[in-house]
Amino acid sequence: MAVNPRTRTASAGVKSKVEDRALVDRRRRQIVNAAIERFGKRGYHATTISDIAQRAGVSVGLIYQYFGDKEDVLFLAILEVLDSYLEQIPSSAGSSGDPLERFRAAVHAYCRVIDANVDATVLAYRETKSLRKVRRNLIKQKEHETNALIAACISDCIRAGLFEKIDIELLTYQIVMFAHAWALKAWHFRGKMSVGQYVDRGLAVMLNRVLTPRGQRERAPLRAR
Amino acid sequence: MAVNPRTRTASAGVKSKVEDRALVDRRRRQIVNAAIERFGKRGYHATTISDIAQRAGVSVGLIYQYFGDKEDVLFLAILEVLDSYLEQIPSSAGSSGDPLERFRAAVHAYCRVIDANVDATVLAYRETKSLRKVRRNLIKQKEHETNALIAACISDCIRAGLFEKIDIELLTYQIVMFAHAWALKAWHFRGKMSVGQYVDRGLAVMLNRVLTPRGQRERAPLRAR
DNA sequence: TCCGAATGAATGAATCATCATTCGTTTCAG
DNA sequence: CTGAAACGAATGATGATTCATTCATTCGGA
Questions:
Q1: Spatial CB neighbours of B54, under 8 Å, sequence gap ≥ 6
Q2: What is the pLDDT of residues B117-143, one digit of tens each?
Q3: Burial level of B168, CB count in 10 A (0-12/13-18/19+)?
Q4: What's the DSSP call for residue B128?
């Protein structure tokens, strides 16, 4: 069940007419970057291959030397984004002994990568559905791996007695959506605060108690229903 | 600054070649419903006018009697969805005296409408960017109104001493994203639990304390930077 | 009451523009 | 020189939009 152990997924089945591995990598990176920019700005369907070619400074034909079709480009573009999350988070969270600090660092890292790739993140949301099912599943898988990083931090905090024994799955999704919201609701948050502030304010809300003691008492009967 | 006081936004500037208001309403509803279904399933760009016509049981030409172009159809489709939220939430939250109960009811209502319109909700996320700026802004405005409903509930709970004086804006977005997540991550949650359970588990995580007393003590120095 | 305009809805084949993709030609490194 | 790499004009498909036509009414005058 375990899949490839973390090689920046590279080609993932996309075929190229050029042999030279190094050249393929270079060209693909060049083209995918242009594509991310264009897809992010205009959306997948609205951007043409020739847009991408122009942006990347190559000819239309060249793109077809390195990709089978337009969907391949989208696929590698989205993969690129998700891989960058999967790379950044663990490296930033590091291995500080304190689980609470690791958790905080992970959330900060997650939000910072997203901040650095707002358009690309939104792209992943908007266009994943345009991919064939196999590929969509691969993307889900990636996302799942990212979630697992966060879940592990939470679970460590619980084991260390720093978090209550809450619903790990739900809290994980809470955090993930919180991070994604920075991109999805950029129009609302941008300008109002920095990513750093956003994370700090968010964590304060998520980790501390919202209900007052009286609120708790009143809530008890509600839940029993 | 205040905009139209809640008339199910109806036409919002979309022009029709037919005069009869009642007929226009009927036909548009018919076409928009078909469109929501198709756009939701296949996405905006991938569905053709003729798809929609077929689904709605009318001719291609007819659609152009009631809409200026394809974008008009998308616009009214998204508007329809957001309006349904704006309608359902207050009517379900009712006016129960207890603010906590109203809050709970509002969140449940929000999630239930979304559950009833998963495809449509995802549609709004995916395709809002395909609209012209003016229209995109109108959509944002709608979303803002919905958020305000939730924010009001929260603020009532605080005033009643049931919630701590937390960051209203952030908690509101927390809740909103939580509700949207039910649609955006449907593939993950569906089958695992019902909407009702989802909301209850979610509220438990959001409202109660996550940090243990010891966690709080350790966290203090962290926040001080 | 009845009949031939006149109006406005509805149709769907034809038009027209826009791309994705191909492929014959050109470049250039070795 | 030779072959791989790059180019970009030409091709073909697709799909939004138009429009000439049909169909169903309403209406006014005899």
A1: none
A2: 999 999 999 999 999 999 999 999 999
A3: middle
A4: G
| Mean local confidence (pLDDT), B82-99 | 88
Is A148 within 8 Å of chain B by CB? no
Backbone angles phi, psi at A16, to 5 degrees: -120, 150
Question: Closest residue of B to A163, CA-based?
Answer: B211
CA proximity to B117, closest of B105, B128, B109, B129: B109
CA distance B174 to B194: 20
Residues 131-190 of chain B with CB under 7 A from strand D are: none
* All domains of chain A in start order, with CATH: 15-68 (1.10.10.60), 72-223 (1.10.357.10)
Residues with CB under 7 A from strand C: A 47-50, 60-61, 64, 69-71; B 17-20, 23, 27, 58-62, 64-65
The model's confidence at residue A1, banded by pLDDT at 50, 70 and 90, is very low
CA separation for the pair B143, B139 (Å, rounded)? 6
CB atoms within 10 A of CB A131: 18
Residue with token string 């509600």:
A222
